[in-house]
Specification:
The chain is of the alpha/beta class. The protein has eleven helices and 16 strands. It has two domains: 271 residues, 3-Layer(aba) Sandwich (Aminopeptidase); 117 residues, Alpha-Beta Plaits (2-Layer Sandwich). Pfam families: M20_dimer (PF07687), Peptidase_M20 (PF01546).
Length: 401
C-alpha cells in the first residue's frame, strides 16, 4: 500500500462526519473498566459491518478485529485503542455530554476508539497491503489493567503480531503535531499501604501508657520524602507521594488510636529504582515502628510497569507521523511522563511504540487536561489520527514477505 498520506486523509475526511457521530455516541454513553458492554457491542457491530473478522469477550469486554491484506505476506501488526471512561461528573456543557451521572470520557478513549475505527474502515475498503492487521480495542486501561489481562489471556497467541503500536491524545500539544521518545516514556505506577500498630490510649490523661502509632506516622511521612533524594541517583526521576491517611475517630480527638494507615503512590522508570523504592519504603516503615515500640505491616503493589518504547518502532512511528505533518511537527525526544499506561504490558511482549497526538491548545495557551471535568476529545484530530494508523500499516505491511 503506497497511498500518499494526503490522499488517505482526504478519503477519511469524506466520512469524517460518520466518525464524529460515533465518537459523540460513545462519549454520551461512558462505561468504566470491564463494563464497556455497549461500547464493545458498537465496536464489534461496526467492524463486522465493514467485513472485518471480529472477536469479542477478550479480557471480559475487549474486542479484536482482524483484517488480511489482498497481497501475500507473513507479517502482522497490532494497533491498540482503549475504550473505558472515568468516574468524573462532566462539566463541558457539550451537546454530546455524558448521560450517565458520575461517569465521563475524561481521557479521550472515545476518540482513541473512533480513530482506530476510522482506520479500520479505510483499510477494509483498501486492502492493498501484505500481511495482517489486528485492531485491538482494550477495556479497563484506567487503573484496572485491561491490557495486562488481554496479554494474560493470550492476546498475542491468538493474534500473532510482529509489532504493536498505541496512541494517546495530548492536550496542550497543538493540533497537527505528534510527540514520542525512545526508551522509557511513561512511569511505572505502584501503590503502597502501611499499617502502623500500637496500643492506643487516652491522649489527655495517660499518653505515657500508650504506644502511639501516630508518632511513627509523622516520622514516616517525612522520611519517605527523603527516599528519592537520598537513595535514588539524581539522574533517575522518581516520585513517592502520600494520598491517604486514616486513624481514630473525629468525635474522639482525645483518644490515641491503636492503628494508623497511610497509603500512596510510587513512580519510577527503571527496574532498579523501582526495587529501591519498594525496599526503602519497607525498611523505613519497619525501622521507625521498631524505634517507637510499634509494628508495621507494609504492602507494596506493583501495578503498571514503565512504558518503554522500542528504538526501531519508535523511529518508524516518528517517521510515519513526519510523513503526514512534516518532521518539524514531530517531537522525537519529549520529556518522560510520570503518568502510567497499561499498554506497557503489551510492549513487554512485542516490540512497538506509543505516540502522542496533539489534542490542541487555545490561542492564549490554555487547555483542559485529561482527567478533568471540562476536558473533551478534539474531533478535529479524528481523521488525522486515523491517517496515522493507516500510514503506519502502509509502512509495516507495504512490502510482501
Amino acid at each position: 500500500m503506497t497511498a500518499d498520506p494526503k490522499t488517505v486523509l482526504d478519503a477519511i475526511k469524506a466520512y469524517e462526519a460518520d466518525l464524529v457521530a460515533i465518537r459523540h455516541d460513545i462519549h454520551a454513553h461512558p462505561e468504566t473498566g470491564f463494563e464497556e458492554v455497549r461500547t464493545a457491542a458498537l465496536v464489534a457491530k461496526t467492524l463486522r459491518g465493514w467485513g472485518i473478522e471480529t472477536h469479542e469477550g477478550i479480557a471480559k469486554t475487549g474486542v479484536v478485529g482482524t483484517l488480511k491484506g489482498d497481497r501475500p505476506g507473513q507479517r502482522a501488526v497490532a494497533l491498540r485503542a482503549d475504550m473505558d471512561a472515568l468516574f468524573i461528573d462532566e462539566k463541558t456543557g457539550a451537546a454530546h455530554s455524558s448521560t450517565v451521572p458520575g461517569k465521563m470520557h475524561a481521557c479521550g478513549h472515545d476518540g482513541h476508539t473512533t480513530m482506530l475505527l476510522g482506520a479500520a474502515r479505510y483499510l477494509s475498503e483498501n486492502r492493498d497491503f501484505a500481511g495482517t492487521v489486528h485492531f485491538v480495542f482494550q477495556p479497563a486501561e484506567e487503573g484496572l489493567g485491561g491490557g495486562q489481562l488481554m496479554v494474560e489471556e493470550g492476546l498475542f497467541d491468538r493474534f500473532p503480531a510482529d509489532a504493536v503500536y498505541g496512541m494517546h491524545n495530548n492536550p496542550g500539544r497543538p493540533v497537527g503535531e505528534f510527540g514520542i521518545r525512545p526508551g522509557a516514556m511513561m512511569a511505572a505506577a505502584d501503590t503502597w499501604t502501611v499499617s502502623f500498630g500500637g496500643t492506643g490510649g487516652h491522649g489527655g490523661s495517660a499518653p505515657h501508657l500508650a504506644t502511639d502509632p501516630t508518632v511513627v506516622l509523622a516520622h514516616f511521612i517525612l522520611a519517605a520524602q527523603a527516599i528519592v533524594g537520598r537513595n535514588v541517583p539524581s539522574v533517575e526521576p522518581a516520585v513517592i507521594s502520600v494520598g491517604h491517611i486514616a486513624a481514630g475517630a473525629a468525635g474522639s480527638p482525645n483518644i490515641i488510636p491503636p492503628e494508623v494507615v497511610v497509603s500512596g503512590t510510587a513512580r519510577s522508570y527503571s527496574p532498579a529504582v523501582r526495587d529501591t523504592l519498594e525496599r526503602r519504603l519497607r525498611e523505613t516503615a519497619e525501622g521507625l515502628a521498631a524505634t517507637y515500640g510499634c509494628t508495621a505491616e507494609v504492602h507494596y503493589h506493583r501495578r503498571y510497569p514503565p512504558l518503554i518504547n522500542h528504538p526501531e518502532q519508535t523511529a518508524i512511528a516518528a517517521g510515519v507521523a513526519a510523513g503526514i505533518v512534516g518532521a518539524d511537527k514531530v517531537a522525537t525526544d519529549i520529556p518522560r511522563l510520570t503518568g502510567a499506561e497499561d499498554f506497557s504490558f503489551m510492549l513487554q511482549q512485542r516490540p512497538g511504540a506509543f505516540i502522542l497526538i496533539g489534542n490542541g491548545v487555545e490561542p492564549d495557551g490554555s487547555y483542559h487536561y485529561v482527567h478533568t471535568p471540562h476536558y473533551d476529545f478534539n474531533d478535529a484530530i479524528i481523521a488525522l489520527g486515523a491517517t496515522y494508523w493507516v500510514s503506519l500499516v502502509g509502512h509495516e505491511l507495504g512490502v510482501e514477505g
